[in-house]
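User: Continuing from earlier, I have the next pair ready.

Assistant: Great, send them over.

User: Here they are, in order.

Assistant: Folding the first of the pair now:
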Amino acid sequence: MAPEAINPDDPRIEHRFLKINDDITYHYMLAKPQTENPPPLGTVLLLHGWPDIGMGWRFQVLYLLSLGLQVIVPDLLGYGQTSAPDAFVEYSLRKMSAHMAHLVRDVVPDPSNHPVILGGHDWGAFLAWRLAIYHPDLFCGVFSFTIPFFPPAPTVVTLDDFVQQNPIFGYQLQNANGEAEAIGERHLRGFINTMHRGVSSDGESAFDPYVGLIEDRLANVGPSPLMTPEIFEHYVQEFSRHGLHGPMNWYRTRSINGEDETQLAAAPTNKYAKTTTTTPTKFQFPSIPAMLVMAGKDSVLSPQMAAGQEQYFSAGLKSEVIADASHWAMTHQPDEANRLIGEFVKQVLGL
């Protein structure tokens, strides 16, 4: 039996809004232990991926509460009740890291005396790795589902060049050029079901990672096996607010992110890793514990992509694979996902 999940109207969840500037406001869910005495042992910030919303962590929130932790789960930029700027330049990892740092400081005014652990999945994991680099003093640990750590590169690699080198990511070109956006909005229900493992009665998917969405198959896709009808309708409602332009904007930022990260790649290693060496070597992640969880049945992001990750983590990397999980590990195999998160959190906090 799967662990208990929160639902959109769950009374144990507060829905809050944080204004970042005149144009950007974030919606986030906040879950607190039922009693304030003792106070929460720490806070966990959970960042969702594409195409998802904060509710993608629905099986993890109550479990983390049971450990005495406070949980923050935002809808990321472009999603749900959070703002969805038209301009893709607003979706750089550097800018969104600043947004998340603002959110953490708003909920946890003194992170130096209250441990904050960062978790992410898919694009949210990519953001989590960068957030920890840009704001290393905010977090005491970070975990990622399905996305390995890719160190900042000294040169900019365009999306075209990236896909040419890695054809299995061909769908990213369709996402960036507007084609997937148009297809998905014409068939929103089929899009959501497809991206969350729904298939036709013949077992055929309407998504091919080498190509992207296949429009003439979307009408025949059945319900996602990862969602109850209530959760599915919630996803339809939330993706109907702004359409798919915001979520697809994340795929239009590769060059912008690359330009930002050339500065990180050129920075002295010890600025981020807090080491004593003054000799620049390979980029080092901040010296906090980290965990990477890959999914054995992820059709794009295979566990083999995690090979050699340990070299970037001076404080150690806990590497795990959920063998029977698809890309959506937290909802596909929630018991195992929670077990690994719990072990990591307890290790970081010394529980």
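And the other member of the pair:
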Amino acid sequence: MPQAPGIVKSASGGNRFTASFVIDGIQYNLVGNLSPSVEEFNSFDASLEYNSAADLTSNQNFQGRLGNADLSFSFENGTKITGSLQMPQGMKTEVNGAGTWVVVN
């Protein structure tokens, strides 16, 4: 599976996040919701695994976890985001949610 480096960070409140990855000079942003709400988090060394860029153009549900030192989100279409947390969580939390991919040219 192809991979792309990027970042993931929490947004306002504890139930929203954004992620950004660049593939072949095109920026792909993901805006997502988490359930349950979590503490603020950032991952500046995130990695996106995907089958094709076509997988990064729609709404997707995911399941995952925010651990003491890392995060992992697995999407229905096989896409996966992983990374280490710069601001560790107090405890490992299982999460689920949905995100919308947006292509920025």
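Worth noting for the second one:
The domain at 3-104 is CATH 2.40.128 (Lipocalin). DSSP finds no helices and eight strands in the chain.
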